[in-house]
Structures are given as C-alpha cells and as structure tokens.
Specification:
There is one protein chain. With about 160 residues, this protein is mainly alpha-helical. The protein has one domain. Helices cover about 80% and strands about 0% of the residues. The chain is built from 7 helices and no strands. It has helices at about 5-10, 15-20, 25-50, 60-90, 90-95, 100-120, 135-155. It starts with a helix and ends with a helix. The structure holds protoporphyrin IX containing FE (HEM). Protoporphyrin IX containing FE (HEM) binds near residues 40 and 152. Protoporphyrin IX containing FE binds next to helix 3, helix 4 and helix 7.
Length: about 160
C-alpha cells in the first residue's frame, strides 16, 4: 500500500500552505524541534551513560531513570508536535526523501527499545543486571537515536 495519497492530502491542507507561505511559523517550530532534540538526547544519555557504568555513578540507576523519564517523554511529545507541521508543509519532499523514511524507521525502533527492554532494565537494581546486557542496550539506544538525528539532518542537506 502506497502512502503517497496520504502525503499528497497532507501537503494540500490549508494548514500546510499557511506554514509554507508564512515567514515565522517554520523557523520558530524548527527552533523548538531542535531545542527538544537537545533535551531528549540529554535525558537519554543520562540513563545510557549510567547503563555503560559512566556519568552519575553515585546515584542508583532506577533513581536516575525516574528523574530523566518526564524529560524524555515530555520532549518526545514536543518533537512529534513540532515535527508534524514541518512534515505536512513539505509533505512530498519528505515522501520522496529516503532519509525521511530512514529517520522514521530508526525512530520506530528507538521508541520500541526505549519503552520495552531499556525501560525495564533501567528500573532494575544494577546488581541484578550483569555486566554485558546493560552495555549492549545502552549502545543500541545511542546508535538508534544517533541514526535518527543523522537521517533528519540529511533530509535537509541532500534534498
Ligand atoms: C514523529 C516525530 C518526528 C517528526 C514527524 C519529525 C519531522 C521532522 C521534519 C519534517 C524535519 C525537517 C526535515 C527537513 O526537511 O529538513 C525534522 C528535522 C529534524 N528532526 Fe525531526 N521529527 C520527529 C522526531 C524527531 C526526533 C525524535 C529527533 C531526534 C531525537 C529529531 C531530530 C531532528 C533533527 C536533528 C532535525 C534537523 C533539523 C535541521 O536540520 O535543522 N526529530 N524533523
């Protein structure tokens, strides 16, 4: 099933035209998207570094994870809310960009990892985790979210 009709519909919305034709909405939304990337990656790294045995070593892992979680989920919601207008106002450019689809695939994998294995692991006492799996999960998480940001940057650079 092709998603092209959906992207054509999105690009044709008045909301998309408003974004494309007005001067301020796009840069403001892009700035908020980028600030949210910084908050999201910060909250992510607090836990991933901790899983790697680095960073806030004095604080128990579940405590670090609990403190980071509202920032992680809150900034993700802002990323989705600010990503949608950018996507709809340039819908066909996104549809034809392989990097957009790369970003979305990595994003989906990143979300699945974050809300399943990584979340369960981060709420468990370290003594029960063993030395290898926390590092595997942390490195996978860092690799997936780095791929999301590289894919996102390439949409703009190579289209
Ligand atoms: C469903 C959620 C998201 C949607 C729909 C979305 C959509 C977009 C779109 C359409 C762009 C503009 C690309 C262009 O044409 O140049 C963009 C830029 C970007 N996004 Fe997202 N995004 C989402 C989530 C995320 C997440 C989770 C991250 C990182 C963790 C992220 C990082 C970036 C970065 C780094 C840029 C490039 C900004 C620039 O080059 O100035 N996005 N996003």
């Amino acid at each position: 099933m092709s998603l092209q009709p959906f992207f054509e519909w999105m690009g044709g919305l008045r909301f998309s035209a408003f974004f494309l034709e007005s001067v301020w909405p796009t840069p403001i939304v892009q700035c908020i998207h980028l600030v949210s990337v910084a908050v999201f990656v910060g909250a992510l790294l607090l836990v991933d570094l901790r899983l790697l045995g680095q960073g806030l070593k004095e604080t128990p892992l579940p405590q670090v994870a609990r403190a980071a979680e509202p920032w992680l989920f809150g900034s993700f919601v802002v990323l989705v809310v600010t990503g949608i207008p950018q996507m709809s106002s340039t819908a066909l450019k996104q549809y034809y960009s392989p990097f957009f689809w790369w970003k979305m695939e990595m994003l989906l994998l990143g979300v699945i990892l974050t809300v399943t294995i990584r979340r369960k692991m981060a709420s468990t006492e370290e003594s029960q985790l063993g030395p290898v799996w926390p590092k595997v999960v942390a490195l996978t998480s860092i690799a997936l979210w780095t791929s999301v940001t590289i894919g996102a940057r390439l949409i703009g650079l190579l289209s």
